[in-house]
Each structure stands twice: as C-alpha cells, then as structure tokens.
Design a protein that fits this description.
The chain is an alpha/beta fold. The protein has 28 helices and 16 strands. It has three domains: about 210 residues, Growth Hormone, Chain: A (Up-down Bundle); about 260 residues, Growth Hormone, Chain: A (Up-down Bundle); about 290 residues, Vaccinia Virus protein VP39 (Rossmann fold).
C-alpha cells in the first residue's frame, strides 16, 4: 500500500513576489473581525439575553454565516475578477455593514422585544433576529479566504501560502481580541470600537485595491470551476469529515476551558479576552507551522492524522492543567491589587497559554494540512478552501452548541472533555487507518493502517483515564483554591453541580453555616452579615410599597431575599427570574430553613431566563422589583446595572412601586461602586442608599428607588408589623437585629443632594459602554469595603423630610441614626 498518485505538482504561483504583502492584509482583516464579533455579541446580548441559549444562538449564527460565505464565494463570484479586487470589495462591504449594524440594531431591537419571549417560539425569534444582523457581514467574512485563494494555485506552495494567510488572520484576531477587551471597550465604547474596526477594514480594502493594480490576474489560466472536470483526491470526504470533527473538538474544548479557567482566573471580561487570545495564539502558531510542513511533506493526509493525535494529547494535557495543576499553583490573588493588576493579567495569560497552546497548536496545523490533503492543481483553489473551511466551521458550530447547551449540563466538564478526546481520536483514525491501494485503485485499510489506528486508540484509552473531575474546592473558591488548600478553611461540600450557564456548590462549615458558591466565590450564606443583607433587601422590597401584591426577584441564589419577600402577607405573586436552572431546582433547597421554602411556595413562579430579556419581552408590571445578581465584575452581570436597564425596570413598576438592588463593597473598588450608585440615581433621582455594616465596618449596601418622591411613615410600617399575620416578617427582622421600623430605616446612608458631591467623578454605566464590568474587573482582588463605605459616609446626613411618624418614633429613629461623622 502506498499513497495515491500525486496530482500536486508545483506549477507557478500567481504573482509570487507579492504574496507576502497579503499576509498583513489578513492580519488587519482578522483584527477587525474580532473587534466586530465582541462588539456585536455585546450589543445583541443586551437585547436577546446573555444566557447560554442566547449566546449559543449568537455564536451559531456568527459561524454559520462564515460557513455560508466560504462555500458561496466560488459559486457566486466569476473567476475572471481579480481575487484581490474581490477581497477589497468584501472588506469595504464589511465596513459598511459594521456601521449599519451599529446604528440599526437599537432601532430594530425594539421590534424584537415587542414580539420576543420564552419557549421555542422565542428561541426561533432570537435566531431570526441574530441572523438578520449577523449573516450578511459574517457571510462576507467567510468569503475572504476563498476569494484570495484564487490568487494562488492548488499546489503545495499555494496551499502553504493559504495556510500563512489563515495564520495571519488568526494573529490579527489575537490583536483584535486584546484591543477590544483592554482598550477600545474599557476606555471608550462600542461606537469607537466599531469605527476603529471600520477604519481597519477600509485601510485593508484600499491596500487590496492598490495591490490588485500592481499585479495582473490571468483568468484564462485559472482552474476550471466545473466540479465534473476535476478528479477528486481519493478519500477527500474522509478528510473533510476529520477536519469537521477537528472544529467540533476545538470549539467544544474552548467552551469547557473557558468555564474552568474563569473559575481559576476570575470570570471578568479581561479573563475572557485573555482565554480567547491564548486559544487564538495556539491556532495561529500551529497554522503557520502547518503551512510550512504542507509545502514539503510527501503525504499531508497522514501528517494531518498525526496532528489529530496531537490534539488528543493536547486535550489530555489541558484537562490535567485545568483541574490538577494550575488551581494548585501557589498564587495569592490578593497580591494583584490595582497597582499590580498588569502583572496579574500577565500571569493569567501565561496560565491560559499553559492550558491551550498544545492542543490549539495542532488544531491550527491541521487546517493547512487538510487543505493540502484534498487539493489538486486542477481544482479551483477558492472551491477547495471553501469546502475545507466550511467543514471545519460546521464542526465548530456543533461543538460550541452541543458542549455549552447539552454536554456540560448533562455530563459535566470531566465527561465532556473525555467525549471530546474520544472524538479527536476518531478524527485521527479516520485519516490514518486507510491508505491507497494501487491494485484496487481505492482507499483501503491494511496492516500498517491497523497499527496506526491501534496506536491512536491505545493512546486515547490511556489518556481518557487521566481526565479528573473538577474539584469541589475549585467550583466553590475558584482563584482562591490554593489559599483554601493551605488553611483548609472550606468546610464540607454537600452539593457540587455544573449547570448550563455556571458551576455551583453548597458547603457547610463546622459551625453549621451554609455557603452558596457560584462564579468561583461565595454568593450567599447564612453568616449573620449576609443574612442581614438578604433580609434587608427582601423586606425593604415589600414594606416600602403600600400594597406589594406582585413582586419580581432577579436572581434566586440561596433564595433568602425571595423568601423574605414571600412571607409578606400582602404579596400574592412572586416571580423569580433565574438564568441557571440548577439554582432554584437544587441549590436553594439546601437553604429552605433560611428562605422559608420559597421555591415550593404556591405564590412563587420561577422563570428560567436572563432577567433583562424577561423584562424587555414581558408586558407585566410589578409593585416591587428586587435585584441580587452576580458580582458586577462577572462578565455579563453589568447588563443588569446599566442606565437603560433601570429605565426598563422603572417602566415595569406599578404606581407607588419600588426597585431595590444589592451593591457589594468587598471585592470591588471605589470607581465601580460610584458607577453603580450614580447610574441608579440617574434613573431614580429620589433614590437612596442603605448600609449593611459588619462589626461596625462597611460591607455592602442596598439601593432603593421609586418613581415618586418617597415618604416613609414609621407609624404605618410598625402598624403593619404589629398585625398577627405579619408575625413571620417580625421574626425574620428580629433574627437579623431589627426590632422596629426605626431600626430598619436607621441604616440610611446617603441620598441626593449629598450624593451628587460624592459622585461628581462617577462614570455612568450605559448599554453602549458597559463601563461597570471594566471598572469592577480591576477591583476583583481588592478588599476595601470599609474604606469605600467611609468615603461615602463623609456625606451622610440625617434625611430631614424623608421620614414621618409620631414624636416618639422619630426620636427613636434619630437615636438609632448615628451622627454624621461619629461612625468614621
């Protein structure tokens, strides 16, 4: 058995001296494409939600457009048009569509929110909405590489150049990813980021047109487009299937790696940029290496198969690095304070490369080798590239969707990684086992092929057993796992689960305290200071409105806030909107003694959806809305703190309604807290802040906003609390130290006009900039809660005119309310 007869003779390349100039064009093209991708995902997620389903629809649509473009180019564009001119036109059209989407999306978004909703019909509408905006530009993006492929011939040298173009495109994507995440969106907004990408597209288009004028294109020497005139390479369908499986494992692994690395590094917007950059670096380096190999290797098909075995090894390495190595590195995250945050980012990038580089290198090398394995001189290079690129992209779509929407929630990250490893082994076997049978004139499996397949299967079988489950300590404490291992202060885990959107755990300490962990940290607990905050949030929500019959709770968590609201006798309907199905289904039940079994309460309706999407697509109004979402530094959480979101929340209030929201002072910084407060008060100018202290020090606060000018009648609140049916509410307040309305409202911290002076330099968090997630991401490792509170409390004054009541109750309130500076 030998390799098939070669049809890959060298031949002359078109305009060989000018080919190196195309590489920087693809660098620019890739940079602009990643900026667009990040901007569009950010803008669209504000409308259709940021749940795994919504993001899956976004990613599937984006990559689907790339697939369509790669296949359509050779079938739509005549071969006589200069490839560089086609490429330049594509880049200019992408720039035009970038501007159209920027200005058109907010207008058309209103149409979606008017007719969108939950369920299958809502999912279908999300897909159609995303397709309307994403398919046109992504089809053009997918066509760029097949377009330029017609400028070379399908020879080893030509394929090598195509691989280099692909590598240059990936290198540009790395730059675009970091540029968007660390500069354009952190300092500016989606408008500046979009026009930066547009400018890059225009420069690339002009350069392409200039290069086209310098280099003639002889269409008469171009390969025939007719598929019937081209003899296919033996086994090319197997190669296409293998490269599709390669794309599947690549994007599936990226989903898993992002989930696990975000626990170790912290789920900030910066972490996601660094993880993506590390992945793309490996792809780019690998494609460059594969391009060089493809030029000289005798049998690119077999080399491609060994690369897929390299993917198997890389996946096993990543599994070890993610759960056994990196989380145990002796790293103290608190050292990466604001002054040294850049060094923390450097370390995070190193850790990302440590995980991703081996497997990503082989994925990158596989693409040019797959091209070389199916290319012949007689074929249209644009058609060859389109087929391989489309196959790889279809696999990538399946990998991303199946891993994020099905496998992780169904099997967990350990089993998902094992499945991906087995699929990579299958991809390797598909191209390594068969070889060319000269006698029969077809591909067949001989003894040497069986040996090669056996090597791959044996290696995969051994490596499958090395993939360990994610430690509960990593799920619970994330980036502090090594610190917790050292002091062993983490209790016993009574639940560890991996859902569709996040990983979570419940732990019980030796003293009986329960902790709910999500995003690699404690999100709620039965500690006194946390119970006090959660009860404050729930009871402010129902005691301030006169008739709180309908209440919406954003974020279930441990359910304590929702439980506090549910026991108010006036509440008839409680709607909990939670993005992760496992939280109300499993987690909150561990806290039933603290949350009054709220999930099982007949009043309660649990809606699994992104809270922003729910509010945008419902016409229901509420008497009270309370929000206790993820920390604002968690990527996507800032969507629930924007000026536009609070305006939507306000529009869903009945007359006399109230909005309450928790704001943490720990693991944050002064700029982030100011942004949260200033943004809220820009929509609720009569809003106010109440403080929850822990041992006399700042810990967290509750913001309260109403559409009308607030007036708190202490007599009326105490009269309600004195009613027999309010006994559970009285007991709930008493358990956290509030014996009367005066006690509860004495936690008042600040309101306007005093707040205006404190917030004079605050940055408003808007949809177009999501400034909060970038500010908060810089303070994730800081513990300055008391310093932040004291900076706020400098402007604390007794709120004259806000409270009314009998002289005795007003005296009680003034007595409970410390003087403006006595607590500093």
């Amino acid at each position: 058995m030998n390799t098939p007869p070669s049809t890959r003779s060298e031949g002359a390349l078109a305009s060989t001296p000018f080919l190196p100039w195309v590489v920087p064009l693809f660098v620019g093209s890739g940079c602009a494409a990643l900026v667009y991708e990040i901007v569009w995902f950010q803008m669209l997620s504000l409308i259709i939600g940021s749940s795994a389903i919504s993001l899956g629809v976004l990613l599937g649509t984006f990559m689907g457009g790339m697939c369509i473009g790669s296949l359509a180019l050779a079938r739509v564009v005549p071969k006589h048009i200069h490839p560089l001119r086609v490429y330049a036109i594509l880049e200019a059209a992408i720039a035009l569509l970038g501007v159209v989407i920027l200005w058109g999306l907010p207008w058309v978004g209103g149409l979606y929110t008017a007719i969108g909703g939950p369920g299958f019909s809502g999912l279908l509408l999300r897909g159609l909405f995303c397709a309307f905006f994403l398919l046109p530009p992504t089809i053009l993006m997918g066509a760029t590489l097949p377009a330029i492929a017609r400028w070379v011939k399908a020879t080893p040298k030509g394929v090598s150049w195509l691989g280099l173009f692909y590598g240059g495109n990936t290198a540009g994507a790395v730059v675009g990813c970091l540029l968007a995440g660390f500069l354009l969106l952190r300092v500016y907004d989606v408008i500046v980021a979009t026009f930066a990408a547009v400018a890059i597209n225009i420069v690339v288009a002009l350069a392409g047109l200039a290069l086209a004028k310098m280099t003639p294109h002889d269409a008469s020497t171009a390969p025939d487009d007719g598929a019937s005139s081209v003899r296919p390479v033996p086994g090319d369908r197997t190669v296409l299937l293998a490269i599709a499986l390669s794309g599947l494992t690549a994007l599936g692994a990226e989903v898993v790696w992002t989930r696990l690395l975000s626990l170790t590094l912290g789920a900030t917007v910066y972490t996601f940029s660094l993880i993506l950059a590390a992945f793309l670096v490996g792809i780019g380096v690998g494609s460059g290496a594969g391009s060089v190999i493809a030029r000289y290797v005798r049998d690119p098909r077999r080399t491609f198969g060994w690369c897929q075995l390299g993917v198997v090894l890389g996946l096993a390495w990543a599994a070890y690095a993610l759960v056994d190595a990196i989380p145990r590195w002796p790293v103290d995250p608190t050292l990466a304070t604001s002054e040294y945050i850049a060094f923390g980012f450097q370390l995070d990038l190193v850790r990302g490369l440590f995980v991703a580089l081996p497997a990503a290198f082989f994925w990158g090398a596989s693409f040019p080798l797959a091209l070389a394995a199916v290319a012949t001189r007689e074929q249209d290079p644009g058609r060859v590239v389109g087929r391989v690129y489309a196959a790889n992209t279809v696999g990538a779509i399946l990998g991303a969707l199946v891993a994020s929407l099905i496998l992780i929630a169904w099997l967990g990250t350990q089993r998902t990684q094992q499945v991906l490893l087995a699929i990579a082994a299958l991809s390797s076997v598909l191209v390594l086992a068969p070889s060319w049978d000269e006698v029969r004139g077809r591909m067949a499996v001989d003894r040497s092929g069986l040996v090669r397949a056996g090597v791959v299967v044996a290696a995969a079988a051994i490596l499958l057993g090395t993939v360990d489950p994610v430690p509960g300590l990593l799920v619970a404490h994330g980036r502090f796992m090594a610190v917790r291992l050292n002091n062993r202060a983490y209790g016993t885990f009574v639940f560890v689960g991996e859902g569709m959107n996040s990983s979570m755990a419940v732990s019980r300490m030796e003293n009986g305290v329960l902790n709910y962990h999500n995003a690699g940290k404690i999100q709620a607990s039965s500690e006194p200071q946390d119970m006090r905050l959660q009860r404050m949030l729930g009871h402010f929500t129902t005691l301030i409105p006169e008739d709180p019959r309908s209440v919406m709770v954003i974020g279930c968590g441990a359910g304590v806030t929702a439980g506090a609201a549910s026991i108010d006798p006036a509440v008839e309907e409680l709607t909990i909107v939670e993005i992760e199905p496992l939280v109300p289904e499993v987690v909150s039940r561990f806290f039933s003694a603290h949350n009054f079994s709220v999930v099982d309460n007949p009043k309660t309706r649990v809606v699994i959806d992104d809270a922003r999407h729910f509010l945008l697509t419902t016409d229901k109004k509420f008497d009270a809305i309370t929000s206790d979402p993820f920390d604002p530094w968690v990527k996507g959480a800032a969507n629930l703190y924007t000026q536009e979101f609070w305006e939507v929340a306000r529009s869903h209030l009945n007359p006399g309604g109230v909005v309450t929201v928790f704001v943490q002072l720990y693991e944050s910084n002064l700029d982030a807290v100011k942004s949260e407060v200033a943004t809220f008060l820009s929509v609720f100018p009569e809003g106010m802040v109440f403080a929850n202290l822990s041992f006399g020090q700042g810990y967290d606060v509750v913001m309260v906003g109403q559409a009308e000018e607030p007036r708190f009648d202490l007599d009326a609140v105490d009269a309600r609390l004195a009613l027999p049916e309010y006994a559970p509410v009285r007991q709930s307040l008493d358990e956290v130290g509030f014996e009367s309305a005066a006690d509860l409202f004495s936690t008042f911290a600040i309101r306007r006009p005093e707040a205006d002076e404190w917030l004079s330099d605050a940055q408003i968090n808007r949809d177009r900039n999501l400034r909060l997630q970038y500010l908060a991401g810089m303070g994730v490792n800081l513990y300055q809660a008391d310093a932040i509170y004291r900076d706020m409390a400098r402007f604390r004054r007794f709120p004259e005119g806000l409270f009314t009541g009998s002289p005795s109750r007003m005296t009680e309130l003034r007595t409970a309310f410390p003087a403006a500076r006595e607590d500093l």
